[in-house]
């Protein structure tokens, strides 16, 4: 009903109130959504290498506040009584150069070595200039008195073509390509400048496939030993091949490394040929694909958990439970290291009880403070707490076997770093064939280096018929 003076009627006012109430409800819902969105963006903005899985290279340029370090009272530099270090003289130098005075300082007469009454010694360590040398191999035909003509065989390191580059030069090129991450064109230039051998970029690029074929038998044994081992580190990261992105997987130990390409799935991890038959403890970052190996026991990376707990403490500064759980894990790690150093099979029971109770109590309190939300998606804090509760055996496995099961997956992460370095310095591979060959050779070199063999020596042995093979005892 319309009022006589032009004012809205009661019905119109009631309808307006209802509409305003609806708008208020919508605005409140939108405000809650935007508030949650801002909180999530602020949480992401606050992530760095110390509280997430981000690498240090992804950190912002904001300098962290330096912690005051108490002075030691000593001067900088070498300290009195320090053993120091430097070049020491050798008893048998490779060469001796005698320097005589040209003439007597008194009468001016000539002098020779027979008049020497002593000398001052100084030793210079240097390398000889490298220059390519051409060796002609002649396989002779010899006739016996029985009238039979026999021909000698060429050495295995000599190719079937009339001219070729030898194993030393091939080993140098592969060493530069795979271990020092030198791009193909610069590798060819470097070899030409150092040795005088003007190799082509095509020859340098083709060496990767040759080297991968040569080391294949060593990789087969590495794969078998990894499968039979007690502890295995597994990790994954992205890499680029041409214009596309591919996933890179690694399976490794402190003594062996195996790298390979594959999708970010169980199929990709299976492509390495290790995890499907592995029955030991696999250390990983709790990626879901590793849950597809029920025959293996699992160990969740402690470094990842520490970073997630640090992020939870920053997101919820009024709660003590993230710091309590983080402290318990760190202290258990210290006790596990101490037990391993002392040759003990277990952590001291009284110490273990304190830290285990702190761990489980902190998780329980956290779960009460962060109840499950409706639906499948949960908050990062709830997801972390449920993982710590449901997989506590996998989280704490390092404390059950001190010295045998590691606290972190750093070994796996270190094995992946050379691939990132390769992309930064030399760029990405243009084909899967080239990338697979590079990874095969890198796996061989890393495994050999973990046994104390130099990278150049390892690839040189491969090209000269004495391929390095890992000792079988590693499977014990």
UniProtKB/TrEMBL annotation:
Output compositional bias ranges, type Polar residues.
Answer: 48-63
Q: Which residues does the UniProt record annotate as the domain DUF6444?
A: 19-84
Taken from the record, one Pfam family name reads zf-IS66
**Which portions of the sequence form the region Disordered?**
46-88
Q: Which stretches make up the Transposase IS66 zinc-finger binding domain?
A: 101-147
Here the segments flagged for biased composition (Gly residues) are 78-87
Identify this protein by name: Transposase
Organism of provenance: Streptosporangium album
């Amino acid at each position: 009903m319309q009022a006589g003076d032009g004012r809205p009627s009661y019905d119109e006012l009631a309808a307006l109130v209802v509409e305003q109430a609806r708008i208020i409800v919508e605005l409140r819902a939108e405000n809650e959504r935007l508030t949650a969105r801002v909180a999530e963006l602020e949480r992401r903005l606050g992530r760095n290498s110390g509280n997430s899985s981000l690498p240090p290279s992804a950190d912002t340029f904001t300098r962290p506040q330096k912690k005051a370090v108490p002075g030691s009272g000593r001067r900088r530099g070498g300290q009195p009584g320090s053993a120091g270090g430097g070049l020491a003289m050798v008893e048998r130098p490779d060469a001796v150069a005698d320097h005589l005075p040209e003439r007597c300082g008194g009468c001016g007469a000539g002098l020779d070595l027979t008049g020497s009454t002593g000398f001052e010694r100084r030793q210079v360590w240097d390398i000889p200039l490298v220059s390519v040398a051409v060796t002609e191999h002649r396989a002779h035909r010899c006739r016996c008195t029985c009238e039979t003509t026999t021909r000698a065989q060429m050495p295995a390191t000599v190719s079937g073509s009339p001219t070729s580059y030898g194993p030393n030069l091939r080993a140098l090129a592969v060493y530069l390509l795979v271990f020092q991450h030198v791009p193909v064109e610069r590798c060819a230039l470097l070899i030409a400048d150092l040795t005088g051998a003007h190799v082509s970029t095509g020859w340098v690029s083709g060496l990767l496939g040759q080297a991968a074929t040569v080391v294949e038998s060593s990789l087969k044994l590495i794969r078998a030993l990894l499968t039979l081992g007690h502890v295995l580190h597994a990790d994954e990261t992205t890499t680029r091949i041409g214009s596309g992105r591919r996933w890179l997987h690694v399976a490794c130990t402190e003594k062996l490394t195996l790298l390979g390409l594959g999708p970010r799935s169980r199929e990709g991890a299976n492509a390495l040929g290790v995890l499907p038959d592995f029955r030991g403890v696999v250390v990983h970052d709790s990626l879901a694909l590793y849950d597809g190996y029920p025959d293996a026991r699992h160990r969740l990376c402690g470094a990842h958990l520490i970073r997630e707990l640090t992020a939870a403490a920053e997101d919820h500064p009024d709660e003590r439970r993230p710091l309590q759980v983080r402290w318990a894990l760190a202290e258990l790690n210290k006790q596990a290291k101490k037990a391993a150093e002392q040759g003990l099979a277990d952590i001291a029971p009284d110490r273990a009880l304190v830290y285990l109770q702190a761990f489980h109590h902190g998780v329980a309190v956290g779960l009460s403070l962060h109840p499950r939300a409706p639906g499948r998606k949960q908050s990062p804090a709830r997801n972390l707490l449920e993982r710590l509760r449901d997989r506590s055996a996998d989280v704490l496995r390092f404390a059950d076997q001190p010295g045998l099961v590691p606290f972190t997956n750093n070994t796996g992460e270190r094995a992946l770093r050379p691939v990132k370095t390769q992309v930064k310095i030399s760029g990405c591979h243009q084909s899967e064939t080239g990338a697979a060959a590079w990874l095969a050779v890198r796996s061989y070199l890393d495994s050999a280096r973990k046994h104390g063999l130099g990278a150049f020596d390892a690839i040189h042995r491969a090209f000269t018929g004495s391929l390095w093979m890992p000792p079988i005892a590693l499977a014990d």
